[in-house]
Specification:
Length: 384
């Protein structure tokens, strides 16, 4: 429930930012650029944009997109995940009750056919997507081929580095929350912890902290994590955990086989910790998208940074340390788009942009912040 409330709150922060977006919509002008001539730049709405949203944040991701598009003067189409269509319908209903005219926000449902319609229709000029790698690559290729502007946030493998000078108790608490909250089903979830030097001695305490988390139905009070989205997702998570064990990883905490009383057929996976992970293991190369933390070991900060920078994904990363020089070095050397210092999930506030990079993002203009307006405007120049 806490994750769901956070989903709504973070979306509403984007709406707040959109209320002040006119300061980002101004064009430019230069008088007397030549004899008797001024130059004026206008920002003109594209017309119609579209957003394809994932299941894991059914309120926040739609609110990342359609309020911005509407505030920039466009009509917009929203296609929610077929697994969780209800939140988008509630948002559309509230938007209508707030006074939005018919046709400004349009919700369509479906899977491949609906996605291809958005990618191909000539009146849709820009497409926003958050979701899996295969879908993102398909949408980027298809929509770009039809002349559309596209932004796709895709898979991730977010790492953190744990230095031995970090605050142990706070670090353990932060890692456990970031790795297992929302059952690990978020693109900014902490997937890999690299323990440098003696910090690897903290793993048993971290495992005990994870073991104390309460797994239950999401609406049950004080539940720390709920089920994963589907039986297929659960099976995929279990298969990747099993592959890690077969490849030589040690299972320090096993969340497989968890049964929640009253929900015996639920898609539950308990917090799971694997250590001794190597970069060629399938559980490392693929995004698990579940409550599974992979632990790696390094002898130096340089070695840990090299490990992270070799990974094809670049959504977010974090370091836990009390040394300012170490933190500063990390910020400037790491290749992830969003970097946290003692902050495990460094998601920007709405006045900044969500800046995943490398294999986690396809496109030119990121979500929200001052850059997002470029996705929704056609700039026009006029010489007078």
């Amino acid at each position: 429930m806490a994750d769901a409330e956070g989903d709504v709150l973070r979306g509403l922060q984007i709406v707040d930012a959109c209320a002040a977006i006119p300061t980002l919509q101004m064009g430019e002008s230069t008088p007397n650029v030549a004899t008797d001539m001024d130059i004026i730049s206008y920002r003109i709405p594209l017309g119609v944009t579209a957003s394809i949203a994932p299941f894991n944040f059914p309120a926040m991701i739609p609110l990342w997109s359609f309020p911005v598009s509407v505030a920039c003067g466009n009509a917009t189409i929203l296609k929610p995940s077929e697994r969780v269509p209800g939140a988008s319908m509630i948002l559309a209903d509230l938007f209508t009750k707030a006074g939005a005219p018919p046709g400004l926000l349009n919700v369509i449902h479906g899977q491949h056919e609906a996605v291809n319609f958005i990618c191909e229709h000539p009146d849709i000029k820009a497409v926003s997507f958050v979701g899996s790698d295969p879908a993102g690559k398909h949408i980027y290729k298809k929509a770009s081929a039809h002349g559309k502007r596209v932004q796709c946030n895709m898979a991730a493998k977010n790492h953190c580095i744990v230095m031995s000078d970090a605050n142990k108790n706070k670090t353990i608490s932060q890692i456990v929350g970031a790795a297992f909250g929302a059952a690990g089903q978020r693109c900014m979830a902490l997937s890999v912890a690299i323990f440098v030097g003696k910090s690897k001695e903290w793993i048993p305490e971290m495992v005990e902290a994870a073991r104390m988390l309460k797994v239950d139905a999401g609406h049950v009070p004080h539940a720390d994590l709920g089920p994963v989205i589907s039986p297929e997702s659960k099976q995929r998570i279990l298969d990747l955990v099993e592959s890690g064990i077969k490849d030589g990883a040690k299972i320090d905490l096993d969340g497989r086989g968890l049964v929640v009383p009253g929900y015996e057929n639920g898609n539950f996976v308990g917090p799971t910790v694997l250590s001794g992970i190597q970069t060629d293991m399938k559980c490392y190369t693929e995004e698990i998208f579940g409550p599974v933390l992979l632990c790696m070991f390094a002898t130096t900060l340089d070695e840990a940074i090299t490990l992270i920078n070799m990974n094809p994904y670049g959504n977010g990363s974090a370091i836990f340390t009390t040394n300012g020089a170490t933190a500063r070095s990390y910020v400037h050397r790491i290749e992830a788009g969003q970097v946290g210092i003692n902050v495990p999930i460094p998601v920007p506030l709405p006045m900044f942009s969500f800046t995943g990079n490398k294999g986690s993002f396809l496109g030119d203009n990121h979500f929200y912040g001052k850059y997002v307006r470029l996705l929704h405007f056609l700039k026009a120049f006029q010489l007078v």
